[in-house]
UniProtKB/TrEMBL annotation:
Transmembrane segments: none annotated. This is PAS domain S-box-containing protein. Residues 33-68 form the PAS domain. It comes from Flavimobilis soli. NCBIfam families: sensory_box (TIGR00229). The lineage of its organism: Bacteria, Bacillati, Actinomycetota, Actinomycetes, Micrococcales.
Length: 184
């Protein structure tokens, strides 16, 4: 297995990159601290991400971030979690050993006895295959808006566009997501 490096220094995937698909019964689970550093990863996460437990423990979860994943979606995720709410999101990841994979993520705050958020818990599963093309198209538009801008500014611009785009359809991001997933 290749040594882990920062996501920014790994080679950019090509169109011919291999897709690693989750099985319908796969549940990918991680827990992170408030900064997004991995404190727990289940065997499915390790298998799908192509990493060992020692390689991911304490590392920022973005070590599997695919460069084609728009920052605006992560901005939405962190804003939602910062408000103490759960979020469902489509996420494109890149395994340490190169393949890309899509997940439908469910991220929730973990609270202590007093109700304070102390960590995050994420469970991911395979998204509907029919959902991926419209998600890919929407995310490509968001990435276009981010290109050439500082990271934070780009993420804010693409999230603003996403919000306006979905508002024009009378949908929130979560409503749009579930409209693509159909009956579960």
């Amino acid at each position: 297995m290749p040594a882990l490096t920062d996501v920014q220094t790994r080679p950019h995937p090509t169109e011919a990159a291999t897709e690693r698909r989750l099985a319908p019964d796969d549940l990918v689970v991680t827990k992170t601290d408030l900064r997004g550093h991995i404190t727990y990863a289940n065997e499915t996460f390790l298998r799908v991400s192509g990493a060992s437990e020692t390689e991911v423990a304490g590392r920022a979860h973005n070590l599997i971030r695919h460069p084609d994943m728009p920052g605006g979606v992560f901005r939405l995720m962190w804003d939602t979690l910062g408000a103490g709410e759960e979020i469902f999101a489509y996420v494109l990841n890149r395994a340490i050993d190169g393949p890309f994979y899509w997940v439908l993520a469910h991220v929730t705050p973990t609270r202590d006895r007093s109700g304070a958020v102390v960590a995050y818990h994420s469970t991911r599963r395979a998204p509907s295959r029919d959902a991926i093309p419209p998600v890919r198209d929407l995310y490509a538009r968001m990435r276009e808006l981010e290109r050439g801008r500082p990271r934070r500014e780009g993420a804010e611009a693409s999230l603003a566009w996403l919000t306006e785009h979905l508002d024009s359809q009378g949908l929130s991001y979560e409503e749009w997501l579930w409209s693509l997933e159909g009956d579960l």
